[in-house]
Design a protein that fits this description.
Elements (H helix, E strand, L loop, with lengths): L8 E9 L3 H8 L2 H7 L3 E6 L10 E8 L2 E13 L3 E8 L2 E12 L2 E12 L5 H14 L5 H17 L1
Antiparallel strand pairs: 1-7, 2-3, 3-4, 4-5, 5-6, 6-7
Length: about 160
């Protein structure tokens, strides 16, 4: 049964940012700057003692829809200034996320790809309940993704 949930949700979003690839990567690895600039992020805290790279661990507290959640994250790939990937765990869900930065005319294309799968079958009720409530509230969880991209763009372009 668990096989049917493997990679059951995949989402890619992107935005053009008028900045260099290096500047965007620098911002995305500066947890203090991200915490200050991103409206949905309350806290980003490095929990490992090593420099940012493969194996680094951190926690992120953020607002998703009407819920405040904490993600436990671990860097799985680190390729400055092109991309990095990390795994996160929350409430029986495992998500693989990649931040990729592609040079484009007058800046870069910042792309976020997230693939989630259920790791605890009892969490399906939590996911379905959240989805049903979002219908009644008139919001969708991925609206938060667009807000995240807009915040990143604004923060980077304001300091470029």
């Amino acid at each position: 049964m668990m096989g049917m949930f493997d990679k059951w949700l995949r989402k890619t979003i992107e935005i053009h940012i008028e900045a260099s690839q290096e500047r965007v990567f620098e911002f995305l690895t500066d947890f203090d700057a991200m915490q200050q600039a991103l409206t949905k992020v309350d806290r980003v805290e490095l929990t490992s003692t090593s420099p940012i790279g493969v194996g680094s661990k951190w926690q992120t507290d953020m607002q998703i829809g009407s819920n405040k959640v904490t993600f436990d994250c671990e860097m799985t790939d680190f390729n400055p200034p092109v991309s990095y990937s990390f795994d996160s765990q929350i409430h029986g869900f495992h998500t693989d996320t990649t931040y990729a930065i592609f040079p484009k005319q007058n800046g870069v294309l910042f792309e976020v790809t997230a693939a989630s799968r259920l790791t605890n079958p009892y969490s399906i009720g939590l996911m379905l309940g959240s989805w049903v409530m979002s219908l009644f509230q008139g919001t969708k969880n991925f609206d938060d993704s667009a807000a995240f991209l807009a915040d990143v763009k604004t923060a980077i372009e304001a300091t470029a």
